[in-house]
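Batch 3, record 17
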Amino acid sequence: MIYFLSDQHGGESYGEIQKYLDTAGEDDLLIILGDLGLKFQDTEENRAFDEFILSAKKKIAFIDGNHENFDYIYSFPEEDFCGGRVHRLTENVVHLERGYIYEIEGKMFFSFGGCKSGAKWKPLGLWYPEEEPTEEELRRAYENLRAQGHRVDYILTHKYETGVGKTQTPALLELCSYINEHVDFSHWYAGHWHTDKPIDEKHTLVYEKLTPIK
Ligand SMILES: [Fe+2]
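Prediction for the assembled complex:
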């Protein structure tokens, strides 16, 4: 079984992750939809959370959000994983990179993390240029979707970008619109908004409620 959670921000919530760790079997996978926040803030809380995640004995994969320590994530070795590329943090924890399509439990998952943060984060030193997609990641995304015949089972993004508000990410908006128009998918899961609710029958926002895949 595959489950989703999102936006723990370096320790804001453990409960549902603990629930997963307590109940998951060997074949289960928890996918965190960004803003996991490993080594993001130099605080005791964040360090305890890092230890909690990195010592996980069950499988966890995460896409990146906008509040991540990208220097830290990118310091881990890359390897092939289910048809795409990941950074491997531990035996059980991997970072799903942008623009790849992973085949997990016979289903195809397109992954694209990141988005632009609000203006207040940069002066706090809690900001990385890598939060926004690069040309290479975007090219990879479109190429892989094309190579897959514009057909995947699931779309995973940190932000479901609809272009509303001050922090829109134009390249992500273009990609999200492209996927909605051209890609045949069964469901889209996104985080970022700190809410657990369906947007419509094909799009769901995930936050702190352990959400089994449909
Ligand atoms: Fe976010």
